[in-house]
Each structure stands twice: as C-alpha cells, then as structure tokens.
Amino acid sequence: MRAYDGFMSDHVSLFADLSFAQVRLLDAVETRLRADAGMETSSFLPLLAVSEHEGARVQDVALALGISVGGASKAVDRLERAGWVKRKSHPTDRRSSTISVTAAGRRALAKGGKAVEAAVDGSVTLAASKRTALQGALAQLRTDLR
C-alpha cells in the first residue's frame, strides 16, 4: 500500500500501477510497430480483433475492442483502405456486412505480431510463470470491465 493524501489505498495504487505500466508498454509497442511493421496499434488491434472473429461485423469489432461502433467503423475503414480486410454482404442481414482478413492482412498481422512480441520481450522482465499469471489476471479484469 502507498500513502495517498493522508490515507492508504490499494485502489489508488492499483490504478496508478496499471496506468503507468500501460503507458510505458504502449510506447514501446508503438515504437516497435512503426519501425518493424509500418503500422500503429490503432490498426494492429482492430486487425487482430477481426482475425480472432473472422466474419465479424463492425459491432463485434467494437465489442472486442471496447470502443464505440463509430470508432470501430473508422478502424475497419482504415484496414480496408490498407487492403488488410474486406467487407462482404452479411448473408442474413442486408443492412450489415461481415469483415474478413485478406492475405495481405495476414502478412501485416504476422509482421505486427512479431514487432509486438519483441517490444513486450524487451519491456516486460517478469519470469514466464509471473507473466502467465499476470496475463490471466488482466484477461479476467478485461472481462470484468466490459
């Protein structure tokens, strides 16, 4: 626990630790993604979401990323312009379309994934068991915060 304005708070400490770690890790990943893969996290994460939910709709991408449908739509538009995804008419809902990763998108995702792995390896010095435990705890937190 740390002192905060005269009182001890695990909650304040948790918030600060998560925030500071996220900022530093995001900076390392952004730098490596740009240098090694020529992309931003604002493209990598939506591309990853589409690859994990092949045939997804924009609403599914928004839910996966925890962003607005409008934000997800803009992200998918960027991916489509880059040639990394393609939209196809939804088979049962004419108002909607499904999104799939193209061959170029799979190559970009592989290149970006290697860049992210390198950035995380260079930034997160936890032992493998602690990294696995942290990943599990963060996955649960992500689920809880939806």
UniProtKB/TrEMBL annotation:
Residues 11-146 form the HTH marR-type domain. Keywords: DNA-binding. The keyword DNA-binding applies. PROSITE patterns: HTH_MARR_2. Coiled coil: none annotated. It comes from the Bacteria. One of its GO terms (molecular function) is DNA binding. InterPro entries: HTH_MarR-typ (IPR000835), MarR/SlyA-like (IPR039422), WH-like_DNA-bd_sf (IPR036388), WH_DNA-bd_sf (IPR036390). This is DNA-binding MarR family transcriptional regulator. The keyword DNA-binding applies. GO terms for biological process: response to stress.
